[in-house]
């Protein structure tokens, strides 16, 4: 548990530094670039104290690839843009003195949240286990998740670069034809993959982490928040919702609803 608490210290140190930068930039959305790095910081602490089994080395490698890829992509995507409208809403709601309040309601909150979600990572690095079928399932889920994240992000970036992201158009091809949020679905798969590593090592009870992450992606900071007012900003999105699953990829529905009647929303 001492190692686990050290992971929390690493995360809080990183978000405190990010908070200081956010005050100067007047942009708290930079915390999104730090989110995956919090897990990487904690994973480094956990890994330093590990037994360096093959399973632990593989997991650490997957975390490095995922964390750096996501942080670099979000930083590139947000470069030169104003503060994300979701954080602007929070800024208006908690003004005045938002700069100080943001340390707790955004930065510290995310650090504690990430710390709890990092439970499977801590467990794997604290318990030696051989590579088995369950581990390979975890690797498979991680690969599926990275596929949906990387390809989904690339298709969205191309869509925006081409000037197609107007109110009259939505991205409804590629992976986005089968799910409205392939990147969020991919993120969920990645965390379930990490959980299977922990499950292989005996940490079945760390299932709280992927369950919570999936809930966050669906109901809190992901799908629900992003789509809260999107039909107002982008009217064509209404039709897109009618024919496309929100999360789990599936065949798009026809106009009469004959395809995939039971939609996972």
Descriptive report:
With about 260 residues, the protein is mainly alpha-helical. The chain folds into two domains: about 1-130, no CATH class; about 130-265, no CATH class. It is about 70% helix and about 0% strand. It has twelve helices and no strands. The chain has helices spanning about 1-25, 30-50, 55-80, 85-95, 100-115, 120-125, 135-160, 180-200, 210-220, 225, 230-235, 235-245. α1 packs antiparallel against α2 (about 30-50) and α8 packs antiparallel against α9 (about 210-220). The radius of gyration is 19 Å and the shape is globular. The relative contact order is 0.11. Mean pLDDT is about 90; it is low at about 260-265.
Key descriptive features of the protein:
single chain, 265 residues, mainly alpha, 2 domains, disordered C terminus
Distance between the termini: 37 Å
The Rg value, from CA coordinates, equals 19 Å
Which geometry do the CA atoms define? globular
How many DSSP E strands?
Answer: 0
**The number of domains:** 2
- Decide which structural class fits the backbone: mainly alpha
Helix-strand sequence: HHHHHHHHHHHH
Low-confidence stretches: 259-265
Number of helices: 12
Main beta sheet: strand number and arrangement? Answer: none
Q: Can you give the mean pLDDT?
A: 90
Q: In what range is the share of β-strand residues?
A: under 5%
Helix content: 55-70%
